Amino acid sequence: MTVTPPVISALDLAAALDAGDDVVVLEVRRDRHTLPVGVHLPTADDGPAGHVPGAHLVDFAQLVGPRTETSGNSPLPEAAQVRELVRRWGIHDSSVIVVYSPDHPSTASRVWWVLRWAGLRDVRYLDGGLSAWLAAGRQLGDLRPVGGGGTAQVRPGSLPTLDAASAAALARDGHLLDARGSGAYAGAGDDAAGGHIPGAHSLPGIDNLRDGYLADADILRELYAPYLTGAPIGSYCGGGVAATLDVLALSTIGVSAALYPGSWSQWTTDPSRPIATGALPG
Length: 282
Description:
GO molecular function, one term: thiosulfate-cyanide sulfurtransferase activity
Order of helices and strands: EHEEHEHEHHEHEEEHEHEH
Structural class: alpha/beta
Pfam families: Rhodanese
CATH architecture of the largest domain: 3-Layer(aba) Sandwich
CATH class of the largest domain: Alpha Beta
Keywords: Pyruvate, Repeat, Transferase
Number of domains: 2
Number of helices: 9
Protein name: thiosulfate sulfurtransferase
Number of strands: 11
Low-confidence stretches: none
Shape: globular
Oligomer: single chain
CATH superfamily of the largest domain: Rhodanese-like domain
Catalytic activity: thiosulfate + hydrogen cyanide = thiocyanate + sulfite + 2 H(+)
């Protein structure tokens, strides 16, 4: 069985677009006013004007479900949300969907993950994003596509997920990775929400990157070596975004990992759930 690669290079994307293949490109941006406390993204003035030609402009919030008091920051979208977006963006079962973000790689990897979770067949993360496109000698566009008429089937639940109970169990019986920075993991400084799920190991999502690109397979295998024991692996972060970089990186070396979409922002909605602090799993 052919395994769909999770990542595409700028050169391969350019070749597919030049050939007229059924490619749908999504440029994902986040609204700075809705970011969690402590998260800072570059402004529009920090990068070049324009986008990969033909890319749809996507608001990150379009792929976030309704929030509740216990949902965490970025709950999964409802099936109807994804179906409407598939129709709007003109995605078919035969389409190759390519996702990138000028904001942060994890913004793109989260949308890559959500679309794969929703059952879309061929979703790729553009390695290096817009910088890689420009480095390949390609031009930027200033027009957005009309889209519409997408017919792809949506099948939510197509990737493994964790809830609070299964995340706690995985931290005991497998490998649960915390993709936040080491300070948040340890509960350092004046961060009242700091700490981690007991038993979880720190592996920041940013560690998967080298100069904006995913690290090569040998580096990733070395990075994840302590957790490649055959036991199940899962990842979480503050709101279920940065952790998708762990899931993406592992998928490039043939390892499946579950995501805890609610992550720390959901874990901490229940004061009875335990919190470990310090640099060790606890």
